[in-house]
Amino acid sequence: MDEDFLLLNPGPVPVTDEVLQSMAEPMVSHRSAEFEAVYERAQDGLDYVFTQSTLSGESTADDGTSLILNGTATMGMEAAVANLVGDGGEVVSLVNGKFGRRFARIADRYASVTRVEADWGESLSVDDVAEAVTDDTDVVTMVHNETSTGLLNPAKEVGQIAADHDAVFVMDGVTSIGGDEIRLDDWNVDIAITDAQKALAAPPGVSAMYVRERAAERLDGESAPFYEDLDWHLRKADSHQTPFTSAVPLFRALAVAVEDIESEGIENRIARHRRQSAAFREGFHAMGLDSFPNTDGPTQFSNTLTAIALPEEIRGDSSEKFFDAVKDRNVSISGGQAHLGGEIFRVSNMGHLTSEQILRGIRTVGEAMQEVGVDVDIDAGVETAEDALDTKAVSASDD
Ligand SMILES: Cc1ncc(COP(=O)(O)O)c(C=O)c1O
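A: This is the predicted complex of the input protein with pyridoxal-5'-phosphate.
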């Protein structure tokens, strides 16, 4: 791949050379002490990310176990639901984007599901959630950072409703954990799930979850799919192993990636992600473009990815020329998913992007827009983004 290639898709995200190199080391047995040491390093780093992701770095939970799954986060989402309501039960699933819908579809396979829905990109109504969750509800599923639309859902409010009814709150934090604030205690999160290739900045193929006591007590391994038996995973995690053959190179890469997060300091990392997403958002606005998600109501803009509405003249099939013009500049961004295809574009600031890379992303989008005939003010976009980045301060943690 060209040295100059800039990957701005919301996962996989760029990884460091150290992460890449860790995967080229000689193979070891997944039952060896060497591998157990790798798993333990990854677990320690994950404990830090799951429980200390605040702007002050304070701890938000200490009663759970971090475990790593040989599969992406969709496996984690299914594992959580199947272990909690594998032989039936009541699930309330919040849906205002593609990944919320995926969680509901997974739950459909195991339980009776009540959906609380909003249009993709709109705020979920907390009142609707309060109405849907009852004392019969076993599990509430919610995607914290909806990758398909670039918005943050109200974890605290939803977690409180789940706790009031003694339901287990399962939160997909796939594109927030490692890049944004996560408060497991304050938000009553019982299981938090994330993917390696997103804000943790590791390669794709494995995922991680933090299972807290209240959820662990309710797991029913007997009714879970054999490969996803979380009781078994938790038992093995105590001895830093997986029940079945581990994806050894991917576990090594994950260990290095989470140690990188500790070196940066999670509070610095969260602050940097906030500056960088603000730079993307405010830069695109100054250029003359509009955000896609609507932040009326309890939702907020994502701090890890930005979704922008395509100007009317290049929507639908005509959007292809715009995406080609971005690609010609050796930058990779994402379009919309499902019915949002041809309606929006999305860029990520997850991982280790520098200020220069953020500014290049803005300039590239502006140039591609101009090439397809959209009148945007590139200089205004870049200048505004520079202000948001407060370039000097950010460079310190970017280096
Ligand atoms: C919010 C969210 N949840 C879950 C997933 C899991 O996807 P996968 O299993 O394909 O990695 C993704 C991936 O983009 C996501 O963004």
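The pocket of pyridoxal-5'-phosphate is lined by residues 11, 72-74, 99, 143, 147, 172, 174-175, 195 (CB under 6 Å). The domain at 17-264 is CATH 3.40.640.10 (Aspartate Aminotransferase; domain 2).
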